[in-house]
Amino acid sequence: MSSADVSRRLVKVSRANDLLCFPDPMPMEWARPLRDAGYDLLAVSGAAAAASAERSANLSWIGAVICATDDMTEAMSLCRHLRRREEPVPLLLIVARHEVAELKLRNDLFDDFCVAPLHPGELPARVEHLFWRTGQPVDQEVIEHGPLVLNLETYQAGIGGRALDLTYMEYQLLRFLATHPGKVFTRETLLNRVWGYEYYGGARTVDVHVRRLRAKLGEEHAHLIQTVRSVGYRLGQANWSPSHREAERVDDEPGPGGPADRVALQF
pTM of whole model > 0.90? Predict the structure, then answer.
């Protein structure tokens, strides 16, 4: 397997990222940080424009940021329109300080509000928190290592499109190795880093979990976790290439009684 096949990539599994915004145009001090956070902004001038956009272009959005500082009446009209949709979206309202009192008896029209002026980083942070609070899917960090995929948010793993049924410690060990591809770790280091310094189990604990992981990866992919004889384990091939002819001793199982060493010559 080439180094490209086992290279680690940290990716984002993202939802659609269109945000409905009011007014049109959205003030730059709020539009810029939202765009910098990766959102595409669909600005509308009011409820009628939003309805027209939905009908004519079949547009949809994951949430809405409504600024009511200049036109509270139209902002509230747009909020009502969005609340009447078959699939309501999380709605963040921006108001001026003197407008806070006008929100009484209107709590059903928005999910959260913030008071202008805002720090540049506050608006995207509030939007992300709103998605989390309302149960909307958020970006998930995923490690892809050849056919191996680990979702760091959901503690799920898969190999070649097949879900892996892992125990908590099996997942933690696989995750640790996958986040350091090609790097060799001793059993003692793995015990400390994965199981914790307070764990008093022996080094064979690591060997047992590696065997279980290989079995669950299946014969086709078991080689992803490699044993470096007399040292420890690594995930995938080392990325380093020697400038001269060298041999690296690699074995399927460590310790006495394992298969004979295999010598892989690199040129």
Answer: no
